[in-house]
From TrEMBL:
Pfam families in UniProt: APH
MF annotations from Gene Ontology: ATP binding; homoserine kinase activity
Family, per entry: Belongs to the pseudomonas-type ThrB family.
GO BP annotations listed: threonine biosynthetic process
Domain (Aminoglycoside phosphotransferase) ranges: 27-258
Annotated metabolic or biological route of this protein: Amino-acid biosynthesis; L-threonine biosynthesis; L-threonine from L-aspartate: step 4/5
Origin superkingdom: Bacteria
Enzyme class: transferase
Catalytic activity: L-homoserine + ATP = O-phospho-L-homoserine + ADP + H(+)
Nucleotidyltransferase is among the record's keywords: no
Name recorded for this polypeptide: Homoserine kinase
Length: 319
């Protein structure tokens, strides 16, 4: 589940009077997601998503995120903008949390993407990268390369409580990625940085929504595709690589930006970096989320298994 902050019907009704969106008809907490509290809100006029921003989203970053959503929506991408109130404000406070009312988009997220769906989703990512060419916002990647070692050190030896050998394996993987990573070699732009299947809404093979831009940041453009490749091209446990899905992602993205020889050569390192990044954030959450919390902890080892696909020479204690 992801409803950390409860919103009473009275508070929500009062909140909605700031907007021209009709009166509250119903509101339900949304189970999916892990970062923020989300509600599906129906009014007498339309359906919306109400998001209350929790621990990982800094309130200071919200103007960047809202400007990005607006920019992408204004270019006719399937990205949901925040709804402005009567004074044009999109960022509010509700129940003590920063809050935004977001346009609802139809569609469902697929759990086992087909090659056709992967092609469409990567095509949409390519279109997004094109669309940010004239977006002026910048945001350093708070989950980028420079953050991985400090996070690894904060997790420390407790990593071995998740699986014996994880501290050594993740440390070795981190060293290898840092040695090979060449920040200066590639184009940079604002990237989504978390375009997992659950952040793409689809109807059949058509993308109807790219959502959850709350890790978006300025970073290596092709690293966004590497993140997507590591998230989409395996079964959820990371045991089986699905080459047809991986190839379809690269083909869909290449409609906008064919991979250069240098990007192809670096792709496995960028994807290994993505695996280290998600193994670390999942490990941190695993160690710091009580086992009985009402949120499903995601398995860090599913990313250790993916790592071995991209870097087969790594030790295999935890894969
Ligand atoms: N604009 C939207 N339109 C339709 N559904 C949405 C929208 N935004 C979020 N959702 C739904 O809410 C769920 C959680 O949203 P998400 O932004 O991924 O949460 P979190 O940031 O907590 O991970 C999504 O899986 C989707 O079902
Ligand atoms: N996609 C990340 C965690 C972030 O969760 P999201 O629900 O905000 O996409 C992971 O799977 O580790």
């Amino acid at each position: 589940m992801a409803v950390y902050t409860q919103v009473s019907a009275e508070a929500l009704s009062r909140f909605l009077t700031r907007f021209d969106v009709g009166a509250l008809v119903s509101a339900k907490g949304i189970a999916e997601g892990v970062e923020n509290s989300n509600y599906l809100v129906d009014t007498s006029e339309a359906r919306f998503i109400l998001t209350l921003y929790e621990k990982r989203v800094a309130a200071d970053d919200l103007p960047f995120f809202m400007a990005l959503l607006d920019h992408l929506a204004s270019k006719d991408l399937a990205v949901p903008p925040a709804v402005p109130d009567r004074d044009g404000r999109t960022i509010h406070e509700l129940e003590g949390r920063p809050a935004c009312l977001i346009r609802f988009l139809p569609g469902v997220s697929v759990t086992q993407p087909t090659p056709a769906q992967a092609f469409a989703a990567a095509d949409a990512m390519g279109a997004m990268h094109r669309a940010v060419a004239d977006f002026e916002g910048l945001r350093p990647n708070s989950m980028g390369l420079d953050s991985w070692r400090p996070l690894f050190e904060r997790c420390g030896r407790a990593l071995d409580e998740i699986a014996p050998g994880l501290h050594a394996d993740l440390g070795e993987a981190l060293d290898r990625v840092c040695e090979r990573w060449d920040d200066a070699a590639f184009d940079r732009c604002v990237i989504h940085a978390d375009l997992f299947p659950d952040n793409v809404l689809m109807l059949g093979d058509t993308v109807t929504g790219l959502i959850d831009f709350y890790f978006a940041a300025t970073d290596i453009r092709i690293y966004d595709l590497a993140i997507m490749h590591s998230a989409w091209s395996f079964d959820p446990q990371g045991r089986n690589f699905r080459p047809a899905v991986g190839d379809a992602l690269i083909a869909g993205y290449s409609q906008h930006y064919p991979l250069s020889a240098a990007e192809k050569a670096a792709f496995a390192t960028l994807a290994s970096g993505a695996c280290v990044r998600f193994a670390l954030s999942r490990a941190w959450d695993w160690l710091n989320t009580p086992a009985d919390a009402l949120v499903t902890r995601k398995d860090p080892l599913a990313y250790m298994r993916r790592l071995h696909h991209y870097d087969p020479e790594l030790a295999t204690r935890t894969a």
